[in-house]
Amino acid sequence: MRPFFVMSLLFGLTFGQTASLCAPSEYTIHVEKQECAYCLAINTTICAGFCMTRDSNGKKLLLKSALSQNVCTYKEMLYQTALIPGCPHHTVPYYSYPVALSCKCGKCNTDYSDCVRERVRTNYCTKPQKFCTV
């Protein structure tokens, strides 16, 4: 019975990453500055999807490396810069945003990702809208 448990555990750890559905996904960012006349709607790609996680309920039975709480995060990305229209000369009219090229399941890096789910939807425009596509 013991070899069956070990093989099941190894299969689960190996198959867990391949069963993840984490990939670049289309997303629209709405950007506006108080000084500017327009809101800019930017079409880009972000990392989104499902990643296998392993519950820590069995943490006394498993090795620490077998436990994980992975999120769908950037593997490769680049930054694009957009010009916000209708800004006065004294305002910096540029906005830089990430574009996901590829994604992976891994630990959330707060240097470039928001690791907390928003409770209130704030991704909308209050000013007239202009569109920008990547």
UniProtKB/TrEMBL annotation:
Xref: InterPro entries: Cystine-knot_cytokine, Glyco_hormone_CN, Gonadotropin_bsu, Gonadotropin_bsu_CS
GO biological process terms on file: G protein-coupled receptor signaling pathway
Coiled coil location: none
Glycoprotein hormone subunit beta domain: residues covered: 21-125
UniProt-annotated location(s): Secreted
GO CC annotation, single: extracellular space
Signal peptide: 1-16
Principal subcellular localisation of the protein: secreted
PROSITE patterns xref list: GLYCO_HORMONE_BETA_1 (PS00261), GLYCO_HORMONE_BETA_2 (PS00689)
Keyword tags: Disulfide bond, Glycoprotein, Hormone, Secreted, Signal
MF GO annotations: hormone activity
Keyword check for Glycoprotein: yes
Subunit: Heterodimer of a common alpha chain and a unique beta chain which confers biological specificity to thyrotropin, lutropin, follitropin and gonadotropin.
Family, as annotated: Belongs to the glycoprotein hormones subunit beta family.
Name of the protein in its database record: Thyrotropin subunit beta
